[in-house]
Amino acid sequence: MIANDNKINGRTVDYTMTAQFLFGYLLAPGCRIVLDEKQFEVLKAYLGHIQAVGDETNFALEMCVDYRDEDDGAGYSVAWDNDGSPYEDDLIGTIMEQMSQSLGFRAGSIIREGHLIDLADIDQQIAEIRDRVAARHNV
Question: Mean pLDDT score of the chain, rounded to an integer?
Fold first, then answer.
């Protein structure tokens, strides 16, 4: 486990270096990850599922930032790139969209603001996403 010296309870932390150590090849150059501790655990779970889709997707997380510690106390940025088959691109896009909705962000584009998914629920959520995307692509 890698400790983050600047961790403050309930506040966001720059986890970029930790993520580079754990998932380096899944991060784009210049990727920035600023989340709280629980959000980072959720991000790691989602990245594990992205990793399982396969290397040929050329997935790269470009940023995942929670702006709650900024002056206005809300907002987020999540960006990624990938270049797989149409099925893989749809699967990754759907997973990342759901992840963005499940990281506890506060912003107008979030359906349930502040809702952070339980780690135990992610595997089931991903299974449902895989089923829906497979049905769309007749896979």
Answer: 91
Distance (Å, rounded) from C-alpha 46 to C-alpha 55? 15
> Domain locations in the chain?
13-137
Helix (H) or strand (E) holding 130: helix 119-137
Secondary structure (H, E, C), 69-122: CCCCCCCEEEEEECCCCHHHHHHHHHHHHHHHHHECCCCCCCCCCCCECCHHHH
Copy the structure tokens of residue 114.
């502040």
pLDDT 10s digits, 3-41: 333 444 568 999 999 999 999 999 999 999 999 999 999
Greatest Cα-to-Cα distance within the chain, rounded to the nearest angstrom:
48
**Residue 74 has what pLDDT?**
83
Q: Scan for tokens 């010296």, then name that residue.
A: 5
Three-state SS for 29? Answer: strand
